[in-house]
Amino acid sequence: MPATHTAQSASPVPLLDLKAQYATLRDEIRDAIERVMESQHFILGPEVSALEEEVARYVGTKHGIGMSSGTDALLAALMAVDIGPGDEIITTPYSFFATAGVIARLGATPVFVDIDPSDFNIDTTRIEAVITGRTKVIMPVHLFGSVVDMDPIRALAKAQQITVIEDAAQAIGARDEQGRSAGIMSEMACFSFFPSKNLGGVGDGGMTVTADDELAERLRMLRAHGSKPKYYHKIVGGNFRLDALQAAVLRVKLPHLDKWTEARRRNAERYRTLFSERNLNASATLPSDTPGHIYNQFVIRAPRRDELQRFLAAAQVGTEVYYPVPLHMQECFAYIGHKEGDFPHSEAAARETLALPIYPELNDAQLTHIVDTIAKFYEKN
Ligand SMILES: *Cc1c(COP(=O)(O)O)cnc(C)c1O
Question: Which of 31, 214, 225, 363 sits at a 20 to 30 Å CA gap from 165?
Fold first, then answer.
């Protein structure tokens, strides 16, 4: 009989194992889905309202407005402050595409500011230099679950009457060094419930949160074609509604979020220990360990990144490159006129970073296997 299990072939470690989480909540999630099925109320309704209140309370703000995705949450937030052609929105070139995509879709121009290489977030010291009379919004992204230093942004925005919108898609539950939650340090903040986010639904979903009653009202109108009351349209919106099935499942998961975040933080700590035990700190750079980081992704900088990724794949370890092409180098933004070298820190990050598995249910054998494989790669090479 051939050996099915050798020292070489430890069990595979995917980048994210959603089945492991589902296994712990199967009955509750099925009950929630059943409840929606029996109600036959699928769009907005009581499940969505309840989730909106629960998320707003969790984040520490007044209103939550459920949206069809994180992307639509951002789009609606920009629409709520009438963003359109001629307007400039300051943001980072090192993020998921949606951050800049929503700006361009409204005919506005993304104005990029390079990142701080220590945490991959927008370098707040470079923002003032690109503010013009057309700057309407500053949109920082709390990338990978690490909160941007918001005070300098808020000070600039206040002085120049600019709106701040947090792209908090990867940052639900994250806090800054003073313990303030992502989502309460701006006029509006946007979360994503895409399945790979820390609070993930069973499909697409998102939420815009705000403490401002008028913006909340506008956001509620915008997600339903700008109507209020039904069939009377003062503004043009879209269909950005969150559905009840997503809300019901997310309501099961939300009470577990802090526990999952703790497990992610423990895994990050374990990586730090394992990396230093194997003397890997000279080879790879680990993400900075800020207290409120929620590690939606655990992103290292690694020499010969692509080779390392292939080596890990051969050892059945899933990884991902977030993101291989910075936004200013995307073909669709060629019209903005950027060239390679314009944002060197973002370009370096795109070349050097690799996300390792960090999901809460990872066990110690898996973490050890990952780090041992990385150690083997750098030993050999
Ligand atoms: C996931 C994500 C989005 C978009 O969210 P979707 O729910 O996938 O539409 C926007 N910005 C960032 C930074 C994200 O990671």
Answer: 225
